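Entry:
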Amino acid sequence: MFYKIKKGNESGVKWQIDTMKINPIIIRVEREDDPTIKEKYEHSLYFPNCIWGYDVSDVQEVNNILDKLIDKHKIK
């Protein structure tokens, strides 16, 4: 996860992680069967001054948020 847009699909939910601005990291999810069901979350970095990229705690938090959003919007 480093200065780009990552996209994927899981359980009928399209997701996107946008790290182009570096801070905040923007997480978007959208249901495939109903594009009106979507959500956006902005994660402000816990450690914005890391030299070699994102701190492991920030990466872990983004993954946790993404998992929760996918669970919330997945097709049941």
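The first strand starts at residue 5 and ends at 10.
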